[in-house]
């Protein structure tokens, strides 16, 4: 089992930045690929970014490419999502997820999920 706890969400204005954190416990963190997903009200959960086990590979949704950066610190069992130039359309609950697959982009490939953290961007 893996427990994931997100933090760092909040209310910001358009153009601001936020950094989300996700602390993992319960299994060797470095054996897991980590992803971030977003879910806006009334919408399906959507892929945002993924980082491979060793942090050697990252991949982003087109909507956040160039603005968001995913990173991880295997010594701290933590994955981050640096969110820059936030826009109102980024408003959503952001979920951290862990996968035993090498580089998963689909939510069905993730085995463990956090409880989510709310990000609200005002115009």
Account of the protein in words:
- With 123 residues, the chain is mainly beta.
- Helices cover 0% and strands 50% of the residues.
- It contains no helices and eleven strands.
- Strands 2, 4, 5, 6, 9, 10 and 11 form a seven-stranded mixed sheet that branches.
- The protein is globular.
- It starts with a strand and ends with a strand.
- The mean pLDDT is 95.
Question: Shape, please?
Answer: globular
Order of helices and strands: EEEEEEEEEEE
Q: What structural class do the secondary elements suggest?
A: mainly beta
**How is the quaternary structure best described?**
single chain
What amount of the residues lies in strands? over 45%
Largest sheet: 7 strands, mixed
Query: Helical content, roughly?
Result: under 10%
Strand tally, please?
A: 11
Overall mean pLDDT stands at 95
Residue windows where pLDDT falls under 50 for at least 5 positions: none
The Cα radius of gyration reads 13 Å
Distance from N terminus to C terminus (CA atoms, Å) equals 40 Å
Q: Given the structure, what is the number of helices?
A: 0
Give the helices and strands, then pairings.
Layout: E1 3-7, E2 10-13, E3 18-25, E4 33-39, E5 46-51, E6 58-60, E7 68-73, E8 78-83, E9 92-99, E10 112-113, E11 117-122
């Amino acid at each position: 089992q893996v427990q994931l706890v997100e933090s760092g969400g909040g209310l910001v204005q358009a153009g601001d930045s936020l950094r989300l954190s996700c602390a993992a416990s319960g299994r060797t963190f470095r054996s897991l690929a980590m992803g971030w997903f977003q879910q806006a009200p009334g919408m399906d959960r959507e892929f945002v970014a993924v980082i491979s086990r060793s942090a050697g590979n990252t991949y982003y949704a087109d909507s956040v490419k160039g603005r968001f950066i995913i990173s991880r610190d295997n010594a701290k069992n933590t994955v981050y999502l640096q969110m820059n130039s936030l826009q109102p359309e980024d408003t959503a609950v952001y979920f951290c997820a862990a996968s035993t697959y090498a580089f998963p982009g689909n939510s069905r490939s993730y085995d463990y999920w956090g409880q989510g953290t709310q990000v609200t961007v005002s115009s």
